[in-house]
Design goal:
This protein is mainly α. It is built from two helices and no strands. The chain starts with 8 loop residues before the first helix and ends with a helix. Keywords: Membrane, Transmembrane, Transmembrane helix.
Length: 71
C-alpha cells in the first residue's frame, strides 16, 4: 500500500477530524459492548449517548462544511 501525503491544509484538517471522530466512536462502541457483556445498562447507555452526541456533532460539521460555514 502506498501512502501519499496530503498537501492541502484543508484536507489534512478534515482527515484529522475524521480520525478523531472514528477513534471517539470506537471508544463509545467499546463502552456499549462492555455494558452489554457485563449486563450494566448504565455503561451501555453512556456509550449510546456518547455515540449519539458524536454522530450529531459529525453531521453538523459535515453540513456546515458543505454549506461553507466556517464559524
Amino acid at each position: 500500500m502506498i501512502i501519499t501525503p496530503i498537501t492541502s491544509s484543508e484536507n489534512s484538517m478534515e482527515m484529522f477530524y475524521a480520525r478523531v471522530f472514528a477513534f471517539a466512536l470506537a471508544v463509545s462502541f467499546v463502552f456499549i459492548l462492555s455494558g452489554v457483556f457485563t449486563a450494566s445498562s448504565s455503561v451501555a447507555m453512556g456509550g449510546l449517548i456518547a455515540a449519539f452526541v458524536l454522530a450529531t456533532g459529525f453531521v453538523t460539521y459535515q453540513v456546515r462544511a458543505t454549506l461553507g460555514i466556517t464559524r
